[in-house]
Amino acid sequence: MKNMICLSLIALALTGCAGKTAYRDSCASQLNAAWEEQSLAEAEGFAGTVSYSKAMALLTGAKTQQQFEAYQGCVEKAKKARFYLRESRAGR
To answer: Any signal peptide, and if so, which residues (predicted)?
Structure first.
C-alpha cells in the first residue's frame, strides 16, 4: 500500500513538472524574436514612443515570468510586445 502511494505521488510530481515546461521553448523563441524586433524599432527612431514603451514593459514582464518558469504568461506578454513593436515601427 505504501508503494502505491509513493508511486502515485511521484507520478503526480512528474506531471506537474511536465506541465511547467510546456511553453518553455515557445517563450524563449518569442522573447528572442521580440528582442530582435526591439532593436529594429530602436534603430528606426521613436515615432511610436507610446507603443515602444508598452512593448518594453511587456518584454520586461515576459523576461521576469521566464525566470520564474511562468512560461504561458511569458508567451502571451512576448506576443503582445511584438504587436506593440510593429505598431511602434509603423509610427503609431
So the answer is: 1-22
Query: pTM here?
Result: 0.69
Cβ–Cβ contacts within 10 Å for residue 3, how many?
7
In angstroms and rounded to an integer, the radius of gyration of the C-alpha atoms of the chain is: 19
Rounded Cα–Cα distance for residues 34 and 50 (Å): 17
Confirm if 65 and 71 have CB atoms less than 8 A apart.
yes
DSSP string, the chain: -HHHHHHHHHHHHHHHHHHHTTTHHHHHHHHHHHHHHHHHHHHT-STTHHHHHHHHHHHHHHHHHHHTT-HHHHHHHHHHHHHHHHHHHTT-
Helix (H, G, I), strand (E, B) or coil at 68: coil
User: Which of the four pLDDT bands, split at 50, 70 and 90, describes residue 6?
Assistant: very low
Residues listed for the chain: 92
